Amino acid sequence: MPVRLNKSGKQAENLDMPRHLTRIVATVGPASNSPEMLTSLIKAGVDIFRLNFSHGTREQHAEVYASIRKIAKEKNSSVAILQDVPGPKLRIHTFENDEVELEEGQTFRLDIRVKQGDKSQVGFQDDGWLESVKKGHRVLFGDGDVQLKVKKADANGLDCEVLAGGIVRSRQGMNFPDTNLDLGAVTEKDWKDIEFGLELGVDFIALSFVQGPDDLIAVKRYIQVRQDAPKLIAKIELPHAVNRIEAILERADGIMVARGDLGITLPIERIPVVQKRLIRLAREAGKFVITATQMLESMTTSPRPTRAEATDVANAVYDGTDGVMLSGETAVGAHPLAVVQIMSRILTETEPEVSLPRIEKIDHTIDGAMSSAVKSLVDELEARAILVPLSRGSTAQRLSRQRMGVPIIVGVPNETLARKLLAFSGVFPVLVPSDNSLFQNTKHVLAVAERYGWVEKGDVVLSSGGFPLEQHGNTNFVRALVVGGEI
After folding, report:
1. pLDDT tens, 302-360?
2. For the chain, what is the radius of gyration of the CA atoms?
3. Which residue out of 94, 291, 293, 395 is catalytically annotated?
4. Stated pTM of the model
5. What's the confidence (pLDDT) of residue 375?
6. For the chain, which residues score pLDDT lower than 50?
7. Exposed (0-12), middle (13-18) or buried (19+): which is 487, by Cβ within 10 Å?
8. Residue 159: strand, helix, or coil
9. Which one of 235, 283, 384, 398 is the catalytic residue?
10. Helix (H, G, I), strand (E, B), or coil: what is residue 74?
11. Are 242 and 266 in contact, with CB atoms under 8 Å apart?
12. 235: annotated active-site residue
């Protein structure tokens, strides 16, 4: 979270700064939307709160938004807010008794004419995608536990055989992993939600069910006309998105490895491999990446995670993820504060053991070469922190991309930029006056590093940035300093 300094360099009242470098994203819901819980979650280490527009009303989200901003202002700190819009989720209609149990081998029909479903059939809405479904394609309900196979497709629906039975509930989502559905990524509801998020002032917008770069273009154009436009995140949850990831990364500011729907639409054994590839490509492209879904799922009800879940979180850090996301664990779980505290402890324990290789060629610029050089110097000099006296984003992002393994403490001119930088691993923004000198800003960010115990007297730190400070997008120096010596 950013730290606010006054003109004299003295720190204003602030919550304790978490020690982990990897960002924690927490979804807000009934279990976590009170001001008291939000305050506790920030103190425990949440960097970004996710507002899931698949649930709740706009009024409820606006109330939570205002509460987060109010708490941040009172504590002279900041956390970012991510708006997650639902996208074109396919859902069945209702059953007479809210749910039915399907048995393996039985026939079951999906039909647009059915208003109230039963054990033999259920209705759905066709928005032009039905004609893409062919004989032999699979239909999955919920998390994919109930599986059907299409035996016949016609203009009104699908005759199916149940391959794997189980409970199917009213309004449950359905997936077609074998079908290329041309749904687009933005529904009419999404556009209204996006406009609402812009009016609120969210820092990130996550777009669901992105299939390719074209899905991002219209949204990017729409939001970029706004001053301080939010960063756009592409949620990767479809095979088509995985296949087009390089092109998607060119358009998006960051991606989310959304393992929930991705685990339904891809064979489960592919998920670990795909996760590693997506994280690597995002890092190489200089875009942030959030790993999501079921990270500490058992803590929705249990006070402790499983060993496998703790290992899963650690492995995402070893892969090089910028952030890890909690969904139901904090939105509706029984232990929202405990889950963030445990997540923070796992990150803190794992990060010192992670050593990701330097990216040799980020781009063909002086700025890119400088960040690569800083990575080498951190390793060679065993530097304890990196100081960036003033950045408007590019220097901090390039340094983060190299996964330095030490905090990157960055002077920034405004809080809006500070919140957006919270998506990048290891970056700790410090609000500093934009008219300060290089000497003053270096002194300020070093003071923060000392105050929070990142460094102590005698430690080597590196200072990197652009000079003159008022020149944007220019990283042209790196200096080695000893804490307690001359700046």
Report:
1. 999 999 999 999 999 999 999 999 999 999 999 999 999 999 999 999 999 998 887 76
2. 24
3. 293
4. 0.90
5. 92
6. 1-15
7. middle
8. strand
9. 235
10. helix
11. yes
12. yes
Alpha carbon separation from 262 to 247, 277, 454 (Å, rounded): 18, 14, 38
3-state secondary structure of 290: strand
Pull the structure tokens for residue 413.
């001119």
Which DSSP symbol is given to 210? -
DSSP 118: B
Question: Measured between alpha carbons, how far is 146 from 158 in angstroms, rounded to an integer?
Answer: 16
In angstroms, rounded to a whole number, what is the distance separating the alpha carbons of residues 329 and 309?
12
**Separation in Å, CA 257 to CA 263, 278, 280, 414:** 10, 7, 12, 29
Q: What pLDDT score was predicted for residue 365?
A: 79
Bridge partners, 277 (sequence order): none
3-state DSSP assignment of residue 94? strand
Kindly name the residue from 7, 73, 91, 189 that is annotated as catalytic. 91
d(CA 14, CA 175): 46
What's the pLDDT score for residue 359? 77
- 4, 43, 50, 244: which is the annotated catalytic residue? 50
Query: How many percent of the chain have pLDDT more than 70?
Result: 94
Number of other CB atoms surrounding residue 221 within 10 Å: 9
Q: What is d(CA 48, CA 23) in angstroms, rounded to the nearest whole number?
A: 8
Q: How many CA atoms lie within 13 A of 373 on its CB side?
A: 17
**Residue 144 has which token pair?**
């994919």
Q: What gap in Å lies between CA 366 and CA 376, rounded to an integer? A: 15
**Residue 402 near residue 363 (C-beta atoms within 8 A):** no
91 is catalytic: yes
pLDDT digits (tens, 9 = 90+) for 236-257: 998 889 999 999 999 999 999 9
Q: Is-contact 477 464, C-beta < 8 A?
A: yes
Task: Give me the pLDDT at residue 128, please.
Answer: 84
**Which residues are within 8 A (CB) of 188 and not within 5 positions of it... i.e. 6 or more apart?**
none
Q: What is the DSSP letter of 11?
A: B
H/E element, 110: strand 107-111
Q: Phi, psi (5° rounding) for residue 394?
A: -70, -45
Structure tokens at 390: 């003033």
Cβ count near 12 (within 10 Å): 12
What DSSP string describes 426-476? TEEEEE--TT--HHHHHHHHHHHHHHTTS--TT-EEEEEE-SSTTSTT---
